[in-house]
Each structure stands twice: as C-alpha cells, then as structure tokens.
Known about the structure:
Blueprint: H1 2-21, E1 22-35, E2 41-45, H2 48-53, E3 62-65, E4 71-73, E5 75-80, E6 83-88, E7 91-99, E8 102-109, E9 115-122, E10 127-136, E11 143-155, E12 160-163, E13 165-171, E14 175-181, E15 188-199, E16 203-206, E17 208-216, E18 221-241, E19 248-262, E20 265-279, E21 286-301, E22 310-325, E23 335-339, E24 366-367, E25 371-381, H3 384-409
Antiparallel strand pairs: 1-23, 1-24, 1-25, 2-22, 3-4, 3-23, 5-22, 6-15, 7-8, 8-14, 9-13, 9-15, 10-11, 10-14, 11-12, 16-22, 17-18, 18-21, 18-22, 19-20, 19-21
Amino acid sequence: MKRWKRSSLLVLFFGILFLAAKAQVDGYLYRRPLHGVTQEWHQLNLNEEILSRINTGKTDLRVISIQGDTQQVPYILQSSKEMLEWKQVPFRLLNESRRNDWYYITLACDTGLVANDISLDFEQENFDWRVNLEGAERLGEWATILNDIRILSIKNQYTSYSFSRLRFSNCKFPFYRISIRGSEKPILKSIVLNQELYKPGQSLTYEVRNFQVLQHPERKQTEVRFRLRFPAELTGLQLYCKSRFDYFREALIESLVDSIQTDAGWTRRYSQIRSASFSSNDYSPFTFSPLRAQEFRVLIQNGDNPPLDFESVSAFGPAHNLMLRFPAGASEQQYYLYYGNANAQAPEYDINAFPTKIPKQASALAVGEEEQVADVHLQVDTDYKSTKWIWFVLIPLLAFLGLFAFRMLKPTE
C-alpha cells in the first residue's frame, strides 16, 4: 500500500512538472501559410487585414511549423515611423528696418550651414500678414526663396491659432532677409533658424470607403464621414479640400465608438481624438497618437463663412513587419502565421537580446490566403511570462508535494 502511494505521488509530482514546462496556447482564430522560406532571415510585411485581426498589444503573432515536432520561429516586431528632427542654425540679427508698408528683418549666419525653416514669434496676438523670404551671398544681391506667404494668428474666446513658420528648400546663404507687408509694425519677440531633418518611414495607407460630406447649415458646420475597409491603427489623416478661397476653420476629429438603438432610430456615439485648426495656408495632415478604429468623422465649424467642400480623405498609420530567424532545414517545412488571440502574452525570444545582429533588411516572404479556424490548439514551448500564473499556483503545490513525497520515501525505523 505504501509503495502504491509513493508511486502515485511521484507520478503526480513529475506530471505537474511536465505540464508546467509545456502549456497550450489556445484561442488562435486565424492562420496564413507562408511561402518562400529559403534562408535564415526573412521579413514578413503585415497587411491591413492581418493588422485588423491581431490584438491591440500585437502580442498574438506566432510563426509556427506543425510538421513533425511543433517549432516556433523567433521574431522581432518592427514598426516603421517617419521622424522629424530640428537642428538650430546659429545666426546674428543684423538689423530691423521699415520702408513704406514693408518691415525688414536681416539675418547673418556662417557660410555653409544648411537652413530650411524659420519660426517667427511676435508680440501681436492677432495678425494676418504677407511675407517674402530672400537669401544672398553678399548684402544687396537678394534672391527670392519664398514669395507672398501668409502668416496668421488668431486669439479670442473661441480659438487660439498661430501659423508663422516659413518652410523652404535647403539653402546655404550667409544672409537672409524677411520682408513683412502690413500697415501695423510687427513687434518681433524671437526668431529661430532651423534645419529640419526628415527621416522617412514606411506608412501604410488604408482603403477608405463610404466617404461622405454632409453640410449642416443650421449648425454652421460641415461634417466629413468615412469608413475603413478594416479596423486600423491610425496615426493621421489628410483632408483634400476643393474650395479655392482662403479659409481658417476649427475642426474636431472623432472616431465611432458604438451605435445605440433608440425610439428615434440608431444613434451613433463618437469619441474625440483631437481638435485642430484647418487652414488654406497649412496643408499639413492631422496627426495624433495611435488609435484603432474603423469609422471616423471630422466636424468643421464654418461660422458665418461659406461651407467648405471636400473631395477625398487619406488615412494612414505606421507599417509593421516581422524580422524572422528560421532554423536550419526550414525550407523543407511548411510554416504558418497564427494570429487573432485576445489573451495571448508577448513571446520572449533570445534574439531580442542581440539587436545588432538582426539584419536591416531581408527577403520578404509571400503570405497566403487567410484560413479561419474555430479554435486552434498549439502545443508549443512557452516562456516564463506566458505561464507565470501557472507557476504562481504550482510552486506552493510542488513544495508541499515534494516535502510529502520525501517523508513517504524516507525509510521507517
């Protein structure tokens, strides 16, 4: 009897250890076959449909071979974002002068320094001026860089907006002259001369459907609605306006949260993303922190001005890809990308500790059609992070069973 109890305890003890070392990763709903595995490193670009299926933390991506022994392929998730950096260019303010309705600011900087951006700050809080920018190798020999550029500032109880930056192509002039035309003398607070360094990143432009422009004259408002083909993580959108007159409007960007059925019908509930100013003088896109949604709207306040008319919208977000390291003989295996698991924990791979050894680029894999699976159960090795809840339960139990087994196996006197 004692021998049976001892054997049973040992079986239970080592069985629990085995279950702790191996755990199922359950709940994967989608997979796609991968084609073109020929070498150790490959790149896998994630399309908009895949990105719409993965969880918000992007922790449920797995590349697995299920032929023979289940084998998981380690990867690094990479996100490509454009970046802007500014490098200040030192200069001296040579003089400020006025002639008739023109106010002149002359700057001098060292020869050979590249500049492409000037930020102006004035004492006035409300102005609407036209500006020219010139450069010269020698004083008096001015060449036009920018002509008839509008700078604007509006501050009242309803809005606070300022646009007083001059952006231009790279120049290396030792002298710059800013000419401002207006009946009021500009009172200069500061000038910053910059070199704007743009580091391009790959962005993913999402397919827009159901683009609508609704005019609400009773609210003095223009509403732009659009829907994406799939839910997407956006970081910006660009509105293209057909109106050709000068305008300055306040805009509110929102995403659809849900729809509620009432006695009056379906009511849409939106969440604010950001407020912004929309101007004919600044064609920059609206950017914001990454947000995942499928339907959006932009509300433009027209006030007493004629409504704006829009022709299209462009929605974009950062591109994502996996840099994968395959084992030897991988070309003989069939690999799948699994995704669509809301509860998956992020994997921990050794390659994360060696970022300098990961190639910058690798040949891209082809992705097959999506296969929908009701519930995929993958028997794979899991890391500590994904099974820590198991250890939290098992460690006290293992300690108890180990002590009990030791006492059972101890010879009696």
